[in-house]
Amino acid sequence: MTTETLSWTPHGNHIEMVEVGIHWDAVRAPVTIGERALELLGKATGAVVADYSLMYWLIKRGTAQYWRRLPRVQALDSCGARTAHIGVPPVTHTTGPRLHWRVPVGPDQYLTNATQLRKALAQAVVDELGMDEDGRSHLPQSQTVVSSTALLL
Predict the structure, then answer these.
(1) Is pTM beyond 0.85 here?
(2) What is the DSSP string of the chain?
(3) Which of these, 79, 74, 65, lies nearest to 125 by C-alpha position?
(4) pLDDT tens digits, residue range 50-99?
(5) Which long-range contacts (CB under 8 A, 24 or more apart) does 118-122 make?
(6) Where are the domains of the chain?
(7) How does pLDDT run across 106-136, given as a tens digit for each residue?
(8) How far apart are the C-alpha atoms of 5 and 134, rounded to whole Å?
(9) How many angstroms separate the CA atoms of 109 and 48, rounded?
(10) For residue 46, which of 36, 32, 33, 60 has the smallest C-alpha distance?
């Protein structure tokens, strides 16, 4: 790891709040979707920060603004009206459940390719939530539609 590349990582044993959009953008997903996405990405994933029920991938700065929305997944950048920050653990924090590196930050590999990540998260949404990227259910109609007769009872 070069000092310049990872200047945003905490020194010592303290968690740092790092502003999104300065060094990287980020994508946040609930752990159920995130774990499935990690399986799908395999070695193509970059570093991942986990904090109890959420996971954060770091992606190239400027790419989140073009991110097409997915159910329960949020792209974070510095282009909106709000400033987002992510808690970044020291490189030695690699176990949870508190803030830790679910996939440790490594030498020159901490960013995940945004296109590959989106594809994996879209599939994870289908697999884990049974819905497509527009939020429509992929469950059989018998499981998603209640008959009008049942509503009257």
Answers:
(1) no
(2) --TTTTTTSPSTT--EEEETTTS-EEEEEEHHHHHHHHHHHGGG---EEEETTEEEEEE-TT-GGGPPPBTTBEEE-SSSSS--EEEE--TT----SSSEEEE--BTTB-PPPHHHHHHHHHHHHHHHHSB-TTS-B-S-HHHH---HHHHH-
(3) 74
(4) 999 999 999 999 998 888 889 999 999 887 667 899 999 999 999 988 99
(5) 118/27, 118/67, 118/68, 118/70, 119/40, 120/37, 120/40, 120/41, 121/27, 121/29, 121/33, 121/37, 121/70, 121/73, 122/70
(6) 16-152
(7) 777 899 999 999 999 999 999 998 876 666 6
(8) 36
(9) 11
(10) 60
Cα–Cα distances in angstroms (integers) from residue 115 to residues 51, 118, 142, 152, in the given order: 24, 5, 34, 46
Buried b (16+ CB within 10 A) or exposed e, 23-39: bbbbbbbebebbbbbbe
Which tokens in the block code for residue 150? 């049942």
Residue with tokens 């996939």: 103
Burial environment of residue 128 by CB neighbours within 10 A (0 to 12, 13 to 18, 19 or more): middle
